[in-house]
Amino acid sequence: MWETIELRELRAFLVLAEELHFGRTAQRLGLTQSRVSQTIRALERKLGTQLAHRTSRRVALTGAGERFRAEAGERVAALEAVLRATSDRGRRAAGTVRLGVVTAAVVDARLRSGIDRYTAAAPGNAVEVVGLPFQDRFGPLRRGEAELMVTGSPLCQPDLVTGPVLARLPRMLAVGRGHPLAAFGDVSVEDLADHPIADLDIELPDELRAALTPRRTPGGRPIPRVGARVREVSELLLVIAGNRVVQPVTGAFAGTYGHPDVVYRPIRDLPKDRFVLAWRRRNRHAGLREFLRTLTTGGTACSST
């Protein structure tokens, strides 16, 4: 099974081999500890050997892990350098900027106008819209598979830069058509204490996760979660349609995803979602800088970094 090993799995192991700590590894990779653990186990399964001993307090490489680290480390770094350089040369020559989006509704009139201006500015300019995965939505940006992405805010990550607000959209509650809350024109966030929400399996910075699915209402009451973790949009829509959960979502989500038995109600006492562009701090892609200029969104770093 070694033929199916992915570069992200090798990268995760090499960071773990440096840190010998799942928490610090997860922080460096922008993942959860459980996702790092799953990735290492998948790599071990494909190699057919154990690479690390795990206890409640520490991580130690096995003999096979030490040998694999020594043999693979420099080769993976060299491969990444070749891939990055080749990709950068190709994108700079073509002027193609890859824009990552989670939902189609975030590409609004302002952003479409900026895309049109950029593509019209030079013959080689193009913008490729890339759909981001439900679970690992920041992964493509951090791995260089997209030059920038549209994301909610606040976002305060040391490796990322954000621009000014592109759009403000109301927060919505997705409810089943037969759910009691569907009868109301709008709802309060306090209602979430009485109706469980889904546990979303999404890799998100803590500040965004807290804004997207708060743990408590403003009044201090806990917001319950139920069932297994939801991993895809279709799973989420089906559990909502079945009246098992209600779910706070962004206005962009509500504008993109529909289901005959799911309705959306405004949450009157949550602030509007603010959508911004985010890009890697050290990204030198010439097309990215030109595209940002067409949007007049001079990048600003998070104030806490």
UniProtKB/TrEMBL annotation:
| Keywords assigned by UniProt, alphabetized | DNA-binding, Transcription, Transcription regulation
Give every HTH lysR-type domain span.
Answer: 5-62
Indicate yes or no for the key word Disulfide bond.
Answer: no
Q: Which Pfam families match?
A: HTH_1, LysR_substrate
Q: Which family does it belong to?
A: Belongs to the LysR transcriptional regulatory family.
> From which source organism is this entry?
Dactylosporangium cerinum
Classification lineage: Bacteria, Bacillati, Actinomycetota, Actinomycetes, Micromonosporales
PROSITE patterns recorded: HTH_LYSR (PS50931)
- DNA-binding recorded as keyword: yes
* Domain of life the protein comes from: Bacteria
Q: Which residues form a coiled coil?
A: none
| Name of the protein in question | LysR family transcriptional regulator
